[in-house]
Please model this.
Amino acid sequence: MISVPKGTKDVLPQDSYKWQYVENAARGIAREFNIKEIRTPVFEHTELFARGVGETTDVVTKEMYTFEDKGGRSVTLKPEGTAGAVRLFIENGLANSPLPLKAFYIAPCYRYERPQAGRLREFHQFGIEVFGSAEPEADAEVISAASLFLDRLGIKDVALEINSIGCGSCRAEYNKALKEYFAPRLGEMCPTCKERFDKNPLRMLDCKEEACKAICAGAPKILDHLCPDCRAHFEKVKSLLGALGIKYTVNPDIVRGLDYYTRTVFEFVSTSIGAQGTVCGGGRYDNLIEELGGAKTPAIGFAAGLERLLLLMENTGIEIPPAGTPDIYIAGMDEASRLKAFRIAGELRAQGICAECDKMARSVKAQLKFADKIGAKYVAVIGENELANGECAIKRMSTGESEQVGSGIFPPI
Ligand code: ATP
Ligand code: MG
Model:
C-alpha cells in the first residue's frame, strides 16, 4: 500500500465543499477589490527564490524542495507566491499597465518542514499583491482585503498585529544597533544566529530557538530606529486602518520570515489553533522587483494559509454550508424502465438539473436506499405503468409527499 507523502493531505469528496467555500470567499473578495487572478508555475528556477525570498531565510536555507531536472537545471517547487508573481510582473512588462496593478492567486506551496498541526509540506495560499504604489493607502487596502476575507469566513478569533521594519536607510542604522546588542551575547546563541549576525542581523529576531528568543526579547526595537519618512508612512497606515474601522495592535517584534519586506509588515494571529497561530501574513516589499531585475516598483501583499484557516474554522465551530445534494434520483425496474430512467436523467442534466440513476444493477429497493443515502431531494420510480401511460410519481424526500407528473414535465426543483 503506497501512502500519501509525509506532510501532505488528500481532500476527500465529502470535504471538498469546505475548500470550495473558502476559495469562493477569496474570489469574492478579489472581485470586490477589483483584483485579477494570476497563475504561475508550480516550479521556478531555484535562483528566483534564493534571490527573492532571501539567502538567510529558513525557507531558502532549510525548507526548499529543490531538484535538478533531466536537463540539469536546478528548479524548486514554489515555497511562497510573491517571488513568482514578481517574476510574472517583470517578465510580461506589466509595469506598463495601468498602476497600481492588483493580482491574486490561490495556489499550493511546498516547504520541507517538520509536519505538525497547521504546518505541512504541501499547503495552499490565497495571496494578493499590489504593484506600483508606495502610498499608505495601498497598505491599508491590502490589510482591509485580508480583514474582510477573514470576516467573510466568519472568523472572529483573530487579531491583527502590525509593525514597520523601515527602509534600507533606517535598516542600516538598526542593524548597527542590533549588532551592538547581540555581539556580547553571541556565544549563547545558535549556529544559525551566529551566521546571520554577519549576513543579516534582523533575521536573528525570527529565530525559533528558546535561548535565542529570550535574548531577542531584550533587543533594540526597529520602531525606535525608523527614519522620519518611514515613521510618517507608518502613522498614515495606522490612521487609514482606523478610518476603515479595522482594529490592530502594534507589535514591534514582527519581522516576518522572508527577507524582502520593507516598511509595513502585518500578521493575523489566532490563539485557537496552537503554536502555528499565524493564519495570514504580509507586508510591503519596495525593493524586491528591482532586486529581481525589474524597474524599481513599490509593492505590497499578503498570503493566507488555507489549511490553517480551515483548522481555525473547525476549532471555533464555524459551520460551512454543506455541499448540494442531487435534485432527483430516477429509479428503474426492468430493462425498459431502466433505459427510460437513464434517458430522463440525461435530459434533466442537459437542463441543468443534478440527476442520478442506477449504475450498479441494483434492485429498486436498493436504488431507493442509495437515493436516500446520497440525499436526493426527489425520487421517481419508472415501472411498467409509468412506461405505458407516460406519467410517473415523484416523491419529495423531505416531506414524503408525492405528485403525479407527465413525461417531459420535470419536477419543480
Ligand atoms: P510560520 O512562522 O508559521 O512558519 P511563515 O512566516 O513561514 O509562517 P509565510 O511565509 O508568511 O509564513 O506564509 C504565509 C502563510 O502561509 C502563513 O501565515 C501560514 O498561514 C501559511 N503557511 C506557511 N507555512 C506553512 C506550512 N508549512 N504549512 C501550512 N501553512 C503554512
Ligand atoms: Mg515558516
In short: Residues 26 and 289 are 25 Å apart (CA to CA).
